[in-house]
Structures are given as C-alpha cells and as structure tokens.
From TrEMBL:
Domain PpiC: 31-140
InterPro entries: PPIase_dom_sf, PPIase_PpiC, PrsA_foldase
Designated name of the protein: peptidylprolyl isomerase
Species name: Geitlerinema calcuttense NRMC-F 0142
GO molecular function, one term: peptidyl-prolyl cis-trans isomerase activity
Catalytic activity line of the entry: [protein]-peptidylproline (omega=180) = [protein]-peptidylproline (omega=0)
PANTHER family: FOLDASE PROTEIN PRSA, PEPTIDYLPROLYL ISOMERASE
PROSITE patterns: PPIC_PPIASE_2 (PS50198)
Domain of life: Bacteria
Top-rank EC class of the record's enzyme: isomerase
Pfam entry (one): Rotamase
EC number per UniProt: 5.2.1.8
Keywords: Isomerase, Rotamase, Signal
Length: 185
C-alpha cells in the first residue's frame, strides 16, 4: 500500500537537479586525499636501560627503540607492507598497514599534519603520541575539488526522488489519520 501511494508520478526535471546542485554545492566538494600506510606500536609499560654508542646508559621505551629500528629498515629499502604485517598493532595490520584513501578529517590532527606534508613514496619519522608510536608512508595523493553536475546527476535525482516519496508518504499517512478514529483506553 505504501508503495502504491508514494510512487505515483515521481519525476525529477533537469531544472530541479541543477537547482539542487547549486543550493547544495558544498556537499559535492571532495577534499585532498592521500593513500596511506601506517605502522602503529603501543607504548611500553616499563622503560629499559640501553647503552648508547658512546657507552652511556639511558632509559628508553623498548617500543620506541623497536619503532626506530623499523624506520631504519624502511629507510634502507625494506617493504613497508611486510613490516606492518610483522610489527603493527592496529586493525590494518593484516592489510599491510593499508588505510586506503583518507582525507585530513579522517586522521588525528598530529598525524594528518605530518602525512599531508609528505610526498608520494616518502616515509615519516617516528610520530610519538600519548598512546604509541606511528610510522606512516604516503603512496599517492589526490587533489580535491568540486564534482561536476554530470558526475553527481544520478545521485541528486535519487535524493530528490527519495524526498518526494517521503513527502508523499507523510501526506498519505496524514490523510489516513484524518479518516481514522482512534480511541485510547
């Protein structure tokens, strides 16, 4: 019944599509994006003593030492994906640390500030944050911009049709309510 009462005569004119596009142009803006790989190591609970090259003993987080060793391997040509699978402690570990295409709003500010300064192929330094250590690699970059009307025409038509159906459904339910008598006990 609902479909019979809400699908009657729905048509979206090109003028409506263009007007919707102009009124909602900010919905069709895509930000700059990067294709990102990341290795994450949680901070250690206890510090350990390490001997420096000049013989001095210093206390360091063993996870930080591991992160620095991973970074050295990456800088000498090791595969980021295999090191991420071996060492990373985040949800993308099995994917080789591949986070896919992300924009600035997807990442924490501290990470996005570093990531969006890198060029494709570059690897960051060890990023030290409260919860752990991050190493990121940028695989590619896409410049943002506004999608053209032709790219989003079908999406807009679908949105307008859905709005029309919801409006028709609301009117149909209002008519049913006016015709009905409801008694509450």
């Amino acid at each position: 019944m609902r479909q019979q009462n809400t699908d009657a005569g729905n048509f979206v004119s090109p003028f409506k599509v263009e007007a919707y596009y102009q009124e909602n142009i900010d919905q069709f803006v895509t930000p700059d994006q990067i294709k990102l790989r990341m290795i994450f190591l949680r901070k250690g609970l206890f510090k350990e003593e390490f001997k420096t090259s000049d013989g001095e003993i210093v206390e360091k987080d063993p996870q930080l030492v591991l992160a620095q060793e991973i970074l050295k391997k990456l800088n000498t040509g090791s595969d980021f994906s295999s090191l991420a699978q071996a060492y990373s402690e985040d949800s993308k570990r099995n994917d080789g640390g591949d986070w896919g295409w992300v924009d600035k709003n997807t990442l924490r500010k501290e990470i996005s500030d570093v990531a969006f300064r890198l060029r494709p192929g570059q690897i960051s330094h060890v990023i030290d944050l409260d919860e752990g250590y991050y190493i990121i690699q940028i695989e590619n970059f896409k410049k943002g911009g506004t999608q053209s009307l032709e790219e989003v025409r079908l999406q807009i038509e679908g949105q307008i049709l859905q709005e029309q159906r919801l409006d028709q459904q609301r009117k149909w339910i209002d008519r049913l309510k006016q015709k009905s008598y409801i008694k509450m006990f």
